[in-house]
């Protein structure tokens, strides 16, 4: 199925009549740049659009009413990227005047609806159909992969710009080689989103030093795949992504996208699949398994993790369940560890994406 994408629409200045093409001058008194994101056809606000100042990697979500602001800017040229699920992305080059006493320019950025093209269904044996960064902002046709990467960008922004602490119920079951349970333990874990490890090629399995009753020991841990890794260039540029057809999650029709490391990646890494809702384009489920494990001397014989996502506010999701099964080569008589995490509470630390009020 192939559907032509809507054309890329440039942004306009509220108090100007020319299109925001090339470099657009804006005033930002006191270093604060503000504006609103609208639907290009209806004029209604596009709530929770993601705006990124590329050079500073400064990220904010627009409010429910489409309004946004960046503080702490100095005079100079910046690149502003604006995106939202279901819309074509916009890339603006702005010349910021932070010293002017003139009223703020106030940007009005219209986004055009994105008509998604489904690529041809691809099997893993074929050549990688998509590598590295999506080219949507360069005028490329939007595909289901663009919507996938937008989900990753939004998850990463939630972790970085709107940090939160989450309480998870954590259940650990240890099994022997016959899958007979040896032990079971249930506790709660406190997670700070700012401390979640990022993907590092060649460092997916880490040797970590621990201290138990005064004894220092070393254990191997797998740095599990997170959907926010989809927004990290190091992950995107070392993995292949392709459309694999229709699927469903708990009765919700979905599109399946597969991924695996590129052939040049020979160290242990993640391959798997991601399912996004065919109507809303929100990420529903991710599954990742360890590949490129050496035949001898590896701490892990296998590992597979899945995660489910729930909507916080319209177009913004968050992980609420995860399940990982890990096979061990170095922990007899234990052969497998089965772990489950379930979200109990979540509290934003400094600011929330759904309100301007403090948490």
Structural class estimated from helices and strands: mainly beta
Major sheet details: 9 strands, antiparallel
Domain tally = 2
Overall CATH class of the largest domain: Mainly Beta
Poorly predicted residue ranges: 1-21, 130-140
Shape: globular
In total, how many beta strands? Answer: 21
> SSE order in H/E notation?
EEEEEEEEEEHEEEEHEEEEEEE
Reported CATH architecture of the largest domain: Clam
How far apart, in Å, are the first and last alpha carbons?
Answer: 45 Å
Briefly note the CATH topology name of the largest domain.
outer membrane lipoprotein receptor (LolB), chain A
Mean pLDDT: 84
- Percent strand equals over 45%
Q: Number of helical runs?
A: 2
Proportion in helices = under 10%
Spatial order of strands in the largest sheet = 12-11-21-20-19-18-17-16-15
At a glance:
The protein is mainly β and 359 residues long. It has two helices and 21 strands.
Q: What is the element layout, followed by pairings?
A:
Elements: E1 11-13, E2 19-20, E3 23-27, E4 33-39, E5 50-53, E6 58-61, E7 67-70, E8 76-83, E9 90-97, E10 107-111, H1 144-161, E11 164-175, E12 181-192, E13 205-212, E14 215-222, H2 233-236, E15 239-249, E16 252-261, E17 269-277, E18 283-291, E19 300-313, E20 316-328, E21 336-348
Parallel strand pairs: 3-9, 4-10
Antiparallel strand pairs: 1-2, 1-10, 4-7, 5-6, 5-8, 8-9, 11-12, 11-21, 13-14, 15-16, 16-17, 17-18, 18-19, 19-20, 20-21
């Amino acid at each position: 199925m192939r559907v032509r994408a809507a054309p890329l629409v440039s942004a306009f200045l509220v108090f100007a009549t020319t299109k925001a093409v090339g470099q657009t001058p804006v005033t930002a008194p006191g270093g604060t740049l503000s504006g609103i994101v609208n639907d290009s056809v209806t004029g209604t606000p596009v709530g929770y659009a993601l705006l990124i100042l590329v050079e500073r990697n400064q990220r904010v979500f627009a409010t429910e009413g489409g309004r946004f602001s960046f503080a702490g800017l100095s005079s100079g040229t910046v690149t502003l990227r604006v995106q939202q699920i279901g819309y074509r992305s916009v890339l603006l080059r702005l010349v910021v005047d932070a010293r002017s006493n003139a009223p703020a320019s106030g940007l009005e950025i219209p986004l055009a609806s994105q008509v998604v093209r489904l690529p041809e269904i691809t099997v893993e044996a074929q050549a990688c159909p998509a590598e590295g960064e999506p080219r949507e902002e360069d005028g490329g046709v939007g595909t289901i992969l663009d919507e996938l990467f937008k989900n990753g960008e939004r998850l990463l922004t939630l972790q970085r710009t709107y940090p939160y602490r989450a309480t998870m119920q954590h259940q650990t079951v240890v099994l022997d080689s016959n899958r007979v349970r040896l032990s079971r333990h249930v506790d709660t874990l406190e997670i700070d989103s700012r401390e979640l490890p990022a993907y590092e090629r060649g460092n997916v399995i880490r040797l970590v030093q621990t201290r138990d009753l005064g004894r220092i020991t070393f254990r191997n841990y797998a740095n599990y795949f997170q959907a926010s890794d989809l927004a990290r260039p190091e992950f995107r540029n070392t993995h292949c992504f392709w459309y694999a057809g229709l699927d469903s999650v708990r009765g919700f029709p979905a599109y399946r996208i597969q991924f695996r490391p590129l052939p040049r990646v020979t160290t242990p890494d993640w391959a798997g699949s991601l399912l996004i809702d065919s109507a809303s384009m929100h990420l529903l489920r991710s599954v990742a398994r360890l590949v490129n494990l050496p035949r001898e001397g590896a701490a892990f014989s296998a590992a597979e993790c899945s995660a489910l996502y729930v909507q916080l506010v319209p177009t913004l999701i968050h992980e609420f369940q995860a399940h990982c099964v890990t096979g061990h080569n170095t922990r007899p008589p234990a052969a497998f560890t089965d772990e489950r995490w379930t979200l109990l509470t979540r509290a934003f630390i400094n600011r929330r994406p759904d309100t301007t009020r403090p948490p």
